Automatic annotation (TrEMBL):
It comes from Maridesulfovibrio hydrothermalis AM13 = DSM 14728. Its main location: membrane. It comes from the Bacteria. Part of the Sec protein translocase complex. Interacts with the SecYEG preprotein conducting channel. Has a central role in coupling the hydrolysis of ATP to the transfer of proteins into and across the cell membrane, serving as an ATP-driven molecular motor driving the stepwise translocation of polypeptide chains across the membrane. Belongs to the SecA family. ATP binds at Q87, G105, E106, G107, K108, T109, D494. This is Protein translocase subunit SecA. GO terms for biological process: intracellular protein transmembrane transport; protein import; protein targeting; protein transport by the Sec complex. SUPFAM superfamilies: Helical scaffold and wing domains of SecA, P-loop containing nucleoside triphosphate hydrolases, Pre-protein crosslinking domain of SecA.
């Protein structure tokens, strides 16, 4: 109440922030006459001058009014579009590292050009991130005319590009692309061996379009690069045949809210009988238990044409928020394999994580982050807590006149869909265009079937038919058009009203049910009423909709019964609508907790990831890592000689001395030195001997020595990091059980994860130095050269023991580090396909 009174007197924080920007709007306008006098050729010259001023130490914000004025005039000349004052406000909000909430049709694509140009003056690059490849290409081409007019370079990163194409795109002043491509490029860069192969530059400034979709909706799923493991897939088919024998409510319980499965005692006994085992929960049968749980989930929680489709013999995930297909993405923990077994397609092998990161932690690495969308205010708390981003609502350029009708609520699905079909038929008859938003492919095809019976022509746009997505959505505002689409299809595409449609009432939006999130409903509504256009919206609900069924429809059903509602008669009541919104708030809170928990666990991994990736970059960019390997040797000697130093001059007992000897032999190969066959070396002797080994290696390898060091360090780092990720996955799976022992699972995960990480770092050092100390460089003669009179000395990298057994000379002309390893020449190709041919 107090906040409300303060807001009434002083205005809200949002209003006060926008009011503070007014002087800058006036300042931008004061530069306009000066910019209008410039010739076209002078625009790139002005940009070059600004770049020089930034390089000389001037702050970007000092140049903001002049640069924004320049971009506004350049837009008029290159695109025929002049930024409105509210768009200037949006540009300033983005430049300040905040989220600009701008209604549909307010020109967010054009707004982004203002901060993009300003921040590109630093020479560090600007990333403009969109939700799909189509929008990335469209915006890069459309706004590229403006950037090119200013003498700036524009690149686009989309699926299927080569590393060279990506390098060129990232090297541009402004780079467009999707969140997945940027994130995966970051992970792939941290799996490369040579700095010449890296594609991304420093993560400087990002403007995220549809920021709520990317930073909220998609943040529940981390980005994962995986490789196939050796686990057999036959068990999925075996278990799949058992699932139909298990009865819901008798053998297992399904929690639809929590998307989880619980086996009953009867179900466990039944599975044990079928599988002919004594105890399903015995450690040796843990894989059976895992496969059964995933099989039940596949059959009872995941529906075909809702959560996934089957296309070309593959199970393809459908994004629950956008309705788009996600080829290449797979459900984890064997769930995808269980779905493949359920659908009778080839069961692919399980994958092991090679690299992963959450969107939250990826985007928080940018020096400055901003975003724009039509619907962010409902998630402002999450944006503030997770990303430290404030949401600023930008006023519309013209007043909104769209009519949002109250929800129409029916008892059953049949009544609801009949009412929807009647509403569409009525609007079609009058010529008013209709856009129907559905939550799944299944529902969109159901409505399509009803319209076919009524002989009403229409377009269906869902994950099965989205190749012409933008074109279909763009025409949805034409007279007589009926378009059925999943709620988010064509997002980012403006629906322009056709001739005569304004007089008919504009575009009519029909929502077939409420989504879990109020924001998705608002996005659907926002497709109508752009830039002061007329329009109308109505949501149709039934008591057995998922949201209503799971969150309190009994109370609403009671209200309908008391009112004596007849079949086919809807209820339109503000209290009911309020109750539904409260249900949505509960679900939003639940989903926020899921995302927060994912982030809490990934924060532990993120600290470790930063250490490993920073070390990798240092190794890749250093011309000489001898100091690093010397440090490794010192630290390993500290470990090996710890018992000796602890004894403080006293003789060691036989067991301890043997332990020290074994460690020295394993890592440094001391058993090769006759001097230390019968006695333990002192630390000084050990250091001298290892120095001599590495000295000889350097002398023999000549100019290849640093490349050898780099190779073995990166190889040890990547191999151990991969194993560590698997260990952390296993730790995460079982960590929840610590709660039963009155321990905080997150704290235990952090503590045990740190112990695993420390052990991994020790193994990296040990593996690297062991490889270098056991490496022997041989002199070999190639057969074809042996037939000639001259002989030539050549190098080969091999393990010492392996070298002893070699009899024949090999055909090598360059140092060899494994046939499938990256070639030391830095070409980026495998050795066998490059210098090893």
């Amino acid at each position: 109440m107090f906040n409300l009174i303060v807001s009434k007197i002083f205005g809200s924080r949002n209003e006060r922030f926008i009011k503070k920007l007014k002087p800058q709007i006036d300042q931008i306008a004061s530069y306009e006459p000066e910019m209008q006098k410039l010739t076209d050729e002078q625009f790139p010259q002005k940009i070059a001058e600004f770049k020089e001023q930034i390089a000389a130490g001037k702050e970007l914000d000092e140049l903001l009014p002049e640069v924004f004025a320049l971009v506004r005039e350049a837009s008029v000349r290159s695109l025929g579009m002049r930024h409105y004052d509210v768009q200037m406000v949006g540009g300033m909000v983005l430049n300040s590292g905040r989220i600009a909430e701008m209604k549909t049709g307010e020109g967010k694509t054009l707004v982004a050009t203002l901060p993009a140009v300003l921040n590109a003056l630093s020479g560090k690059g600007v990333h403009l991130i969109t939700v799909n490849d189509y929008l990335a290409n469209r915006d890069a081409e459309w706004m590229g005319k403006l950037y090119n007019f200013l003498g700036m370079t524009v690149g686009v990163v989309v699926h299927g590009q080569t590393d060279q194409e990506r390098q060129e795109a990232y090297a541009c002043d402004i780079t467009y692309g999707t969140n997945n491509e940027f994130g995966f490029d970051y992970l792939r860069d941290n799996m490369k061996f040579y700095k010449e192969q890296l594609v991304q530059r420093e993560l400087n400034f990002a403007i995220v379009d549809e920021v709520d979709s990317i930073l909220i909706d998609e943040a529940r799923t981390p980005l994962i690069i995986s490789g196939s493991s050796d686990d057999a897939t036959s068990m999925y088919g075996q278990i799949n045949s058992i699932i139909p024998l298990l009865k819901k409510g008798e053998d297992f319980e399904v929690d639809e809210k929590g998307r989880s499965i619980t086996m009953t005692d009867d179900g466990v006994i039944k599975c044990e009988k079928i599988l002919k085992i004594d105890n399903l929960y015995d450690a040796q049968h843990i894989s059976y238990q895992h496969h059964i749980m995933q099989g039940i989930k596949a059959h009872h929680l995941f529906a075909r044409d809702v959560d996934y489709i089957v296309k070309d013999g593959q199970v393809v995930i459908v994004d629950e928020f956008t309705g788009r297909l996600m080829p290449g993405r797979r459900f984890s923990d064997g769930l995808h394999q269980a779905l493949e077994a359920k659908e009778g397609v080839k069961v692919e092998s399980e994958n092991q994580t090679l690299a992963s990161i959450t969107f939250q932690n990826y985007f928080r690495m940018y020096n400055k982050l901003s975003g724009m969308t039509g619907t962010a205010d409902t998630e402002s708390v999450e944006f503030a807590q997770i990303y430290d981003l404030e949401v600023i609502v930008i006023p519309t350029n013209t007043k909104m006149v769209r009519i949002d009708h109250p929800d129409s609520i029916y008892k059953t699905q049949r009544e609801k869909y009949n009412a929807i079909a009647d509403d569409i038929a009525s609007k079609y008859k009058s010529g008013q265009p209709v856009l129907v938003g559905t939550v799944s492919i299944e529902k969109s095809e159901l409505i399509s079937g009803l319209l076919k019976k009524k002989k009403i022509p229409h377009d269906v746009l869902n994950a099965k038919h989205h190749e012409q997505e933008a074109e279909i959505v763009a025409e949805a505002g034409f007279k007589g058009h009926v378009t059925i689409a999943t709620n988010m299809a064509g997002r980012g595409t403006d629906i322009v009203l056709g001739e005569g449609v304004k007089e008919l009432g504009g575009l009519h939006i029909i929502g077939t049910e409420r989504h879990e999130s109020r924001r998705i409903d608002n996005q659907l509504r926002g497709r109508s009423g752009r830039q002061g256009d007329p329009g109308s919206t109505r949501f149709y609900l039934a008591l057995d909709d998922d949201l209503m069924r799971l969150f309190g429809s009994e109370r609403i059903a009671g209200i309908m019964d008391k009112l004596g509602m007849e079949e086919g008669e809807p209820i339109e009541n503000g209290m009911v609508t309020k109750a539904i919104e409260n249900s949505q708030k509960k679900v939003e809170g639940h989903n926020f907790e899921i995302r927060k928990q994912l982030l809490d666990y990934d924060n532990v991994m993120n600290q470790q990831r930063e250490v490993i990736y920073t070390l990798r970059r240092e190794v890749m960019h250093s011309d000489d890592i001898s100091d690093m390997t010397s440090e490794f040797v010192e630290e390993l000697f500290d470990d090996c000689f710890f018992p000796v130093e602890e004894a403080k001059g006293r003789p060691l007992d036989e067991e301890t001395e043997e332990m020290v000897r074994i460690r020295l032999d394993e890592i440094f190969g001391f058993n090769r030195n006759e001097e230390f066959k019968d006695k333990l070396p002192t630390r000084e002797q050990a250091e001298e001997w290892v120095d001599s080994i590495l000295g000889k290696l350097k002398e023999s390898a000549t100019e290849h020595y640093h490349e050898i060091q780099r190779y073995f360090l990166l190889e040890a780092l990547d191999r151990n990091w991969k194993e560590h990720l698997l260990n952390m996955d296993h730790l995460r799976e079982g960590i929840g059980l610590r709660g039963y022992g009155q321990k905080d699972p997150k704290h235990e995960y952090k503590r045990e994860g740190f112990e695993l990480f420390r052990a991994m770092l020790d193994r990296i050092k040990e593996n690297t130095i062991r490889a270098l100390c056991h490496l022997r460089i041989e002199t070999e003669v190639r057969d074809d050269e042996f037939q000639h009179k001259e002989q030539q000395k050549e190098l080969e990298y091999s393990d010492n023991e392996e070298a002893q057994s070699k009899k024949k000379p090999k055909r090598r002309s360059e140092p060899k580090i494994g046939r499938n390893a990256p070639c030391p020449c830095g070409s980026g190709k495998k050795y066998k396909k490059c210098c090893g041919k």
